[in-house]
Protein 1
Amino acid sequence: MPNVFDYLTWRGDLSLEQAPFNDVDGLIMSSLSYASLAGLVPPEGITLAGAARGYFAGGRPAHPRGEKGGFWDKVDALLWQAGGSVRFGGVRLLDCTARTDREAAEQFAALAADLGAAGGFVSFQGTDDTLVGWKEDFNMAFITPVPAQREAAEYLERWAPRLGNPLRVGGHSKGGNMAVYAAVHASPAVRGRLEAVYNNDGPGFCENALDPAGYRAASGKIRTFLPQNAVVGMLLDHQENYTVVRSTRQGLFQHDLFSWQVEGPDFVRLEEVSGASRFASDALRRWVTGLSVEQRERFVDALFQVLEGPGALTVGELAQGGVRSAAAMLLQLRDMDEETRRALFQVLGALVKAAGRSAWDWISPLRLGGE
């Protein structure tokens, strides 16, 4: 099934001037902020081809078609193939920033790119595998803005004057959420230059998170793409319409942008997300809206107190800890004060109940012969 790697094989020999920028190009530019290029972009900028050469000069392996390894191997493969293409190799990176702050619960990464005659692009990275990054995602349920959203708005405002028109901004996962937030809260001068805001399976926003006037001004430029079994992209509140893209994976793994199918210069589009996706979205929305802001905050703090108990900094380290990690997390639960422990289990119980009600809402029409 064709994906972004096949697209680069087919379209990579055509410059952005020869073939107009499209939504698949938007996904590729949104995804390049995942590449670990911080420190490789000098003040005067560097082409993507030059940055890729510098990155792989350290002996990092590349899989030219991205068919081996996990997500980060595929990110390397995308950098390798895009950097070696006519279409993206000449794109000039002006900045690549990456920062993680455990105290502030912030994980932020972004890049600013000059596309030549095709304009400019600001790309925000989605969540990495740090526990800090995941906690910031959870914090979106009760904090507006989280630090990364605020920094995204400042980053767009800072780099937009150095980029040409048309100006585009985008990201995948949390990066898509940050792109929307930055566009909505941009100054009128910057927002007026925006041609498109690419939200690739990014979560929505908690209530009252977006400036109403700014959203009205930017909403017509927001392009949201979700796989058919979307879970992440259906979280919290989405006010904009979205396009459904066919994925070759199942369930939550459809969040993997490398599984999205491409046909020619466009995605393979479907009419709507699956019933399973709507079920999960409904369950999680019931859970979130059924809790007070204080309950959401207590749940997130308690959850990550447990997850950080083994001393792991990343999800990978937590998984590698195996039984040792599990034992450390149980100790964290045991040592919690009774009120906090009760709150944690109450919220988890509320989620189960919400899922049960949602399951009945979706199953009962089928049992009664409905849709």
Protein 2
Amino acid sequence: MLLLNKFFSSYSQNIGALLIASSVALSPIAYAKAPVTVEKLTNAPLNSELAVHGTLYGKQDVKLTAGVGGLLTYVAEPGKEVEKGEVLARIDTLPLELEQARQQEMLNRAKINLQFQKQELKRLKQLAKSSSTAASQVDKVQQQHDLAQSDIALAEIELKVIADKLNRSTLKAPFSGVISERYSRSGKDVNRADELLSLIDINNLEARLYVPVKYLKYIKKSMVLPISSGSLGSLDKTDTTVTAVIPTTDPRSQSFEVRATLPKPSNQNWAAGQLVDVIVPLNSNQAELLVNRDALILRKQGVHIVRINKDSKAEQIPVTVGKGQGKLVAIKPINEGSLSIGDTIAVRGAERLSTGQEVEIQKGVNAS
């Protein structure tokens, strides 16, 4: 029994010594300051970007109609490059030429009739002076004279109408471009409203893009939008200039149309109908609180950042997050006035920090 008591006494002393040693060894770790890297809270306008897709179109793209009814005798082929004023289609003019000849004869008859009525009116007026003819007869001839003049005017107008039809029977290119599609071939009778050709304006391309309506205030005429297309290995890039902002919103997509013109020297590298990537700068004139996005701590109850006060202690500040640009993001404190410009914010090492916990700013990190 005595030996057993000595054993337990020695065992208790050893256990006590081990516990004291353990507490001494662990105490520096339990109370060590947490290392963090920090940055200053800044205040500046946030300039972000919006990437959207667009499509290239010719500014003057048009589907050309016959202009006058008749038999097609020639229609240009798809793919043909044409210059302004070049003939694209012809319509048989024989019926119009015959109509023009008939109307010319009608004009000649009206002129002959007018000449006769002039002579007859002059003779009756002379007789009327000597009371040799009735005034009613003079009035009747005067009326026929005026009607003959009107017939001449109508015939001249009709000749102008026929001349216009003859002019439109030859379809000419309104601008230089490429025939993209042909809807009718020669030998077919067409009406004046029938579509014959589609002409693409390859020399004046513009990008048409649709932007969410909430960004309407950021886009103005004459601003520059960079566009790109192709693979990463051979990416084509150029700058476009906004020429039109159409503030009409599509009810489903809630977007509005923007048109931006490509510079002419670069048109040869792009094609009408091509899809392009467009970068829309969203420049804000209102200054916002900006912080490195690595400083954001995401939790179920919300988002917060950790401010380091003058005593090198952590303070959790709940915030709402706005737009971002690069590594910066706009924030707004939930409790107004809880943040100030120039506050020191923990960027790394803040995930496990609690309010009041002491920290150690790592050397070599610029906190100014």
Protein 3
Amino acid sequence: MTQEHDLLRITDLQVDFNTFEGCLHVLDRVSITARMGEKVGLVGESGCGKSTLGRCIVRRVRPVAGEIIFWSERLNNVEDIVSVTDSIWKQLRKQIQMIFQEPGAAINPVFTVGDQLRAAIRFSAPTHIGKSQIQRRAIELLQEVQLSDPERIMSSYPFQLSGGMQQRICIAMALGVQPSLLIADEPTTALDVTIQEQILRLFNDLVSYHRTAVIFITHNLGVVREIADRVYVMYAGQVMESATTDELFENPMHPYTRGLISAVPKLTGGGIIEGIPGHIPSYLDPPTGCRFCTRCPDVVPKCDEVRPPIGSINASHEVACFLYGGEAS
């Protein structure tokens, strides 16, 4: 499989949640792709459906419509994660890993780091691998994530380690499975600024070394600009814009993308940032058309009634907005 092929292709994904108040329409026909070795940023305000999309990929959440097509190098086949059998999913799960926002909640507190790291390695290792080989690989992984004294850490419990160390262990456990796709859901949000920088640099280096495709979920545009090759901008369960990272920041097209970028505080100052007026619409009764229409400074009458289709600005830049001549879908 080459860099040009899609490792993951999500098409028209729709997710609803039934609550006592009614049905929440959280994801509305979301489509994204990720190629082998590519780092894809998924950015948007908190509550826009980014984490829900990530959990759909690992089957923590079941969509009501759409496809999640994954190319499995080990099975040499293309599978739809939504409809695949449990036996096939068990094999695919070894190739797809997810790092969660809270490392303390992702590691079992009653087992040592060594027990959990060895279990992660054993999960994907050949059946003939010995205990000494697993132990050696576990120590190597801790060294790869730049944790000193790995023997001591192997015998430690998670509560005996700092948040930054716990997050490094989560990264080591995910990479120990040697996944083709890694989903990182706000992996630095709970850490202080200096540790964030260390984790991001480490994450970037390791992913490049292992040639793992990454979907990096965050609301931090600075993180996206530093780590992603390509970016999808989400708002209220819809994809507003997608482009290469450089092009998105140099030439943002959608009014929401422009609002996000202009809301980032500048080191040079320049007054108080106002942000984007208004609030995300209720998922119980979202607009039929573009969900950003209630906050958009460039809204036209049909925006509330008809969802604008994704239109191509060029080969690497797409935007869903009637400002750019798209016809109603």
Protein 4
Amino acid sequence: MKRLVGSLAALATAATLFTVAPATAADAAKPKERSLVSVLTSDGNHFDRNAGDFDIVTEAALAVVAAKPNSAVGVLADGSVRATAFVPTDQAFRVLVKDLTGKTLRSEKRIFNTLVRVAGVDTIEQVLLYHVIAGKKLTSKKVLKANGTRFKTAQGENVRIKIRRSHGTPVISIVDQDRNDRNARVILKKVDINKGNKQIAHGVDRVLRPINLP
């Protein structure tokens, strides 16, 4: 556990800066694009018993921006900026907390509070940014054509798309920096969230890890 917390602390010091070009007058005249934050909070933004939605990641993003108003995580609230996010379900965070603490927690609120206590806001910020590919809108069709492609995340490290087929159905994995755990997989029933806007998201069943956890 000490090695794990030490690794998380090291990650928190590896903050990266990600800037967005200021909007022009022409941009201001265009209809506003819907942001990912507005979509993910559209169900009321509260903890519940649905392990397949995105309450924890939403609360995590809001907590980071509340603590650090200038955080690059705020880009997810700016629909004018192209971005692709791989968003972990609440179940994905339950798995992460079990890996971190050895305990299986049922309550989404307890999972969230445990993450804040064990990892801290700075580390959560870096983990969230590792799920975002800034400046690119990758629809599910584009992801399916990206087998073997590496993408630089807003956190600064890369993720790699890996695709195989199982009985004709594509299995899309996001290869992260952690070699000790199963890679996150895209949930095919939760792709192209916010389709038609500049920001798009795909649900994943694990939290992406920008470091190799012991």
